[in-house]
């Protein structure tokens, strides 16, 4: 299964949440393996993302890791009408390039699913992010 960078970042947050829960050994090992694979891709994503942020001079609007896909132009400020136009153009270009990055496929991941006990508690948002990787038993 191939993931896009967007799915990888979302899955990384959910896997980090799962890694804090006491689970059977087999499940914990599989979560750790998948998490390690996705962490490598997330680091590549973060590097390219940071370069885009610097190139287009936009500011992330997040403080939480879960929101690392959100941006704002409020920090761009208004110096003059021409400066504002240039900054708005940069934001548009950034959004276009960033969306291409999010849609880029990463490495092939194994098809085997992580078996999770049905009695664990997990947020629906996290479950959605890792639904393709798990099987409830």
Structural account:
A two-stranded antiparallel sheet has the order 1-4. The protein has a two-stranded antiparallel ribbon with strand order 2-3. It is built from four helices and six strands. The chain has one domain. With 137 residues, the chain is of the alpha+beta class. α1 packs across α2 and α1 crosses α4.
For the structure shown, list the relevant keywords.
137 residues, alpha+beta, two-stranded antiparallel sheet, 4 helices, 6 strands, 55% helix, elongated
Provide the β-strand percentage band: 5-15%
Largest sheet: 2 strands, antiparallel
- The radius of gyration is 18 Å
Mean pLDDT: 81
Tell me the number of strands.
6
Structural class: alpha+beta
Query: Can you write the helix and strand succession as a string?
Result: EHHEEHEEHE
The helix fraction, in percent, is 55-70%
The number of helical runs is 4
Spans of at least 5 consecutive residues with low confidence: 72-78
Could you give the distance between the termini? 21 Å
Topology (elements, then pairings):
Layout lengths: L1 E3 H14 L6 H32 L2 E2 L10 E2 L8 H23 L1 E4 L5 E3 L7 H7 L3 E3 L1
Parallel strand pairs: 5-6
Antiparallel strand pairs: 1-4, 2-3
Helix pairs in contact: 1-2, 1-4, 2-3
């Amino acid at each position: 299964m191939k993931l896009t960078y967007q799915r990888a970042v979302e899955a990384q947050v959910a896997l980090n949440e799962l890694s804090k829960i006491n689970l059977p050994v087999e499940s914990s090992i599989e979560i750790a393996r998948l998490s390690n694979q996705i962490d490598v891709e997330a680091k590549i994503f973060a590097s390219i993302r940071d370069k885009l942020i610097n190139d287009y001079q936009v500011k992330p609007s997040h403080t939480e890791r879960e929101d690392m896909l959100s941006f704002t132009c409020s920090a761009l400020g208004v110096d003059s009408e021409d400066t504002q136009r240039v900054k708005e153009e940069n934001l548009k270009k950034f959004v276009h390039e960033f969306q291409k990055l999010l849609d880029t496929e990463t490495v092939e991941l194994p098809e085997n699913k992580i078996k999770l006990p049905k009695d664990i508690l997990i947020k629906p948002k996290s479950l959605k992010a890792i639904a393709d990787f798990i099987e409830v038993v």
